[in-house]
Design a protein that fits this description.
By secondary structure, this protein is mostly beta strands. The protein has one helix and 20 strands. The strands form four sheets. Strands 2, 3, 4, 7, 8, 9, 12, 13, 16, 17, 18, 19 and 20 form a 13-stranded antiparallel β-sheet that branches. Strands 1-5-6 form a three-stranded antiparallel β-sheet.
């Protein structure tokens, strides 16, 4: 048997403040000499979330599992802060780091029976009992991009980065004692391992103050009974209203 985990679905990025230079759905501070410059991006993130944990058979048959949004009443939307930093070390090199946290928890009286964790060793929680649950997802990415083409009108770069993901989840009976509810143990937890990603940057300056920036990252791995992939695409449009300030919006 092998575990199958559905990660958060594609998400929308909200407004951002850019400190000097183009950014995506944010406020940015950067050096406007380059389309991808040194900058700090601060903004809001409003993702669409869909998370299911289940156990599939080795012959490809889909097993039963827990859908956190439908079975445990988790919201499929959550407003989150977002931060990203970039350093244009030279004409040819750009370094970038970004971070996002999607930790969530809930308490629910079950309207359907669930088996957790998936598999033979799991426990069955019947209809009518109250369970506490949590779902923690934290991701950071560090990348180095080599700029293969740069001009006032456009920039093109290729990147190699590392994607670090922390994921854990747990479900347990809501048992209280001494006026406090007991904590839930992490029944499902992924190892914290940095995984490499390949990426491509492309930026276009549409006018003196407007810029469009695109980025894509890809990674895939199959090892023993585990397989997975990561595809991330991002598009930002930014307006630089002052020498070191701008704002914009984007989709990730």
């Amino acid at each position: 048997m092998k575990s199958s985990l559905t990660r958060p679905a594609p998400a929308l990025m909200g407004l951002l403040l850019v400190l000097s230079g183009p950014a995506s759905g944010q406020v940015t501070v950067s050096t406007s000499e380059y389309i991808f410059g040194s900058e700090i991006e601060l903004g809001g993130f409003w993702p669409a979330l869909s998370t299911e944990i289940r156990l599939d058979s080795n012959d490809g048959q889909t097993g039963t599992g827990v859908d956190f949004e439908n079975d445990l009443d988790y919201s499929d939307r959550k407003a989150l802060p977002m931060i990203q930093g970039s350093w244009r070390a030279s004409k040819s090199w750009l370094f970038q780091i970004d971070y996002i946290n999607l930790d969530r928890s809930n308490s629910k009286i079950l309207e359907k029976e669930i088996h957790w964790p998936p598999g033979e060793d799991g426990e069955t929680f019947p209809v009518g009992v109250r369970v506490n649950s949590f779902l923690n997802f934290e991701a950071s990415r560090i990348s180095a991009a080599y700029v293969v083409r740069t001009s006032k009108e456009s920039e093109l770069a290729v990147s190699l980065g590392f994607h670090l993901t922390r994921f854990s989840s747990g479900i347990g009976l809501a048992v209280s004692g001494g006026g406090q509810e007991g904590s839930v143990a992490a029944d499902v937890e992924l190892p914290l391992v940095p995984l490499p990603t390949l990426g491509l940057y492309w930026g276009i300056r549409m006018s003196e103050k407007w810029a469009l920036r695109l980025r894509g990252d890809y990674f895939a791995l199959t090892y023993d009974n585990y397989s997975g992939s990561l595809i991330s695409t991002r598009a930002d449009i930014v307006y630089e209203f002052a020498e070191h300030w701008g704002f914009g919006a984007g989709m990730n």
